[in-house]
């Protein structure tokens, strides 16, 4: 009887976390919805009135917010994936901005994130773009020029 009660308590505490976790399908649907809203905004800019454009911008903003919330829910429920761990670099931390130019020692293959899909990072559209870890930040870097294209600060816990 005691084992049954303990098992029930364990299941009761584990279930809310499993229910809150966003499945890949839900996040994919949110991303698809965002792309659809962006297409509709583009069409409204071409063919619609000022009111239509304003309404479509609001819809795109709402779709982006929903996608962000899905990602945050996933991140919150999978904290172990985003744990910072013991990560050391032979250089000091710099607060990089979009458009900054990095030296090759900051973004060599040793710092590449080999599986960006594990962290739900977007797929780089260009083969020259790579996700690079810089302490607890993640940078999208053009490896040919060293230019920073995107920055996520405090990505790892």
UniProtKB/TrEMBL annotation:
Locate the coiled-coil region(s) and give their ranges: 20-70
Could you tell me what this protein is called?
RcnB family protein
Q: Which keywords does this chain's UniProt record carry?
A: Coiled coil, Signal
Does the record carry Coiled coil as a key word?
A: yes
Signal sequence: where? 1-21
| InterPro entries for the chain | RcnB
